[in-house]
Design goal:
Blueprint: H1 3-23, E1 30-33, E2 36-39, H2 40-65, H3 71-94, H4 100-122, H5 131-148, H6 161-183
Antiparallel strand pairs: 1-2
Amino acid sequence: MNLANRITIARILLVPVIMFFLLIKVKFPHIRIEEFSITYNQIIAALIFIIAASTDSLDGYIARKRKLVTNLGKLLDPLADKLLVTAVLVSLVEMGKVDAWIVIVIISREWAVTGLRQIALLEGTVMAASKWGKAKTAAQITAIIALLINNFPFTFLDIPFDIIASWVAAIITLYSGIEYFVKNKHVIDFSDKTQ
């Protein structure tokens, strides 16, 4: 249980904390600026999400820099990322802030690629993250933050940045998933070896 793995576990433990602040049925005070309104619990959830999302790069950097890469870390790191994104997106659907179809596209891609990675590992192949995979992560985090903070400050400019960012995240997520499967189609053997 090295430092990198502890940071990853901390990210997992922050998931229910974020969900608590997003889904708790207690009326928190609002901050109002003209027509813009946001609750304190949303601000807290957004801050915790930003901290949790930023630890993704940190634990990987520490593991590589200090040569602390472990099998546990290889398992927990992508799991922590997917738990964080999935939990927050489902919470945002519950809050009526994002369309369910966008969340379904994102979650389906995440778990499909995870399955492909597991098959590749069984075959002794490691699937490296692509540039589109990294763009997908950045797009998802950007969209989630915009949704969490009620489109601030773009709401004052009448720009639906949160909706646009959600669509962009869904499109990039879908494209990156297709790219993974196309580039690694050799990993999946559809031939029937029993005959």
